[in-house]
Amino acid sequence: MASGININRQPSDFQRKLNPNVAMVLSILLAGLGQLYNRRYVKGISFIILEIAFILATFDFLWLGLWGIITLGTIPGVDHSIYLLVYGIVALLLLAIAGTFYVLNVIDARKQAIQINNGWVSPGIKQSLKNLYDKAFPYIMTLPGVILLIFTVVFPLLFAIALAFTNYDLYNSPPRNLVEWIGFGNFTDLVTVDLWKNTFTSVFVWTIIWTLVATSFQIVVGLILAVLVNDKRVQFKKTIRTILILPWAVPGFVSILIFAAMFNDEFGAINKDIIIPLIGGDGLPWLTDPFYTKIVLIMIQTWLGYPFVFALFSGVLQSISSEWYEAAEVDGATRWQKFRNITLPHVLFATAPLLIIQYTTNFNNFNIIYLFNEGGPAVQGQNAGGTDILISWVYKLTFETNNYSMAAAISLIIGLMVSIFAIFQFRRTSSFKEEGNI
Fold it and tell me: Looking at the structure, do residues 153 and 193 belong to the same domain, yes or no?
């Protein structure tokens, strides 16, 4: 035991006995053997017990999971491919966790062998436990959160990625039928099969237009209103700000449903009380013509989104020193020059990360698209509506046509696009860099 080690023993006594490479190889063969070789008996025995217990407790499950994720079943009606896929992903996660600890065990064995050769003497059991507690306490406290994160975030993500490479749909649904791995077949269909290609192109283009136009409009409107209200000549600022933020106080789905009723082609107030009295006829096809529906959606999103931007910009504008504007006036700057060189740079510098989030949020803004007109109207030759964006199309593929694998493939594309855009923009944003010139 550690208590039997002679503290006065010279490093040369250990150098003849301990080989770090031997300790490493022993730990690779069986976790804990390297620690026993280093005469860390309590730690070595604990590692051996943990490894044997893990193997005995999970061997059957790991074997089933690995077999299942490779084959997805072999007997229709008996093997459930989706269950086997779930078991396989869980098995891979367990192996990843166990592998991480195994690697740490190997590193620990080699490192301690080197330390002992350099004269380090292991403390007693009591001191070892105290040192372990001091070093491991933060990890012990975060461990439940990490486990929860793995099985509530990482697991669903891996499951969705796996589905994207299968043929899981209404016609290949277990347990009656088996699901098969098809590689990049779903992604290939998106660019080669006419139905999928036409739909994907149309929906993708509209998603980009929707994201850029709707978000830019709400930002511009919020900025203009914030600058106007912040003008020192404007009276009753608090009242005006309260009125302008009111759309934010109403739940979004309530506002969307109200707008859907107002723009109804047959009985909506917009056609009945405004359009028809002005131009006659039957009014405008707000819900039956994709062009008009898209215009309305952009207008509604501007209405719903500008209050947040307005409140954000208002706070930033009040933090800009009035001395800067006074100095600009002394230099003969016009209102536009003061706005362009003082107001706008400071506002964008302080709010750029949140503005980027506005774009990424609208890219996946399912609520307004689906609640207003369920992504409609229908378009001939496509399996998505005329105003469907990628996320609402994924919803329809999942819950209406049960094409789970294609929905997963499109979701993977969405995730990659949003991640790349966000990372690229954040890295270019001054707010995430060290102080510099504005």
Answer: no
